[in-house]
Amino acid sequence: MGVIYRKISNxxxxxxKEHDITPEQWAVLYRVSEREGMIQKEIAERAxxxxxxxxxxxxxxxxxxxVVKQAGEQDRRSFLVFSTEKGRALIEQIVPIEKQTxxxxxxxxxxxxxxxxxxxxxxxxxxxxxLT
Length: 132
Fold this sequence. Notes:
One of its GO terms (molecular function) is DNA-binding transcription factor activity. By secondary structure, this protein is mainly alpha-helical.
């Protein structure tokens, strides 16, 4: 699974290069856009990344103008994260690229088998979550 993940990530990285965003940054930006105003901890959980990595990625996304952080009202130490207009425009450009990358990676595999793969990977993730 690790080898395939790296191959898909490298393919996506190559396709995203002209957009000045890495696959890791893309994953975090997309999660932010799914539910605006999350705290960094929630984003890390949704993106499947640890908090320090997520903080570093959010800092990079903020420096590029794709997200903004606002101090939380209840806890000034935590930040609420929102995508910017520039970030939302980038998302509209990247979603088709990601979809095409997945389609290219699963070329020749039936829709039923791709759905089975997704179910199996989710089950593996749930099994691991129960163990940790």
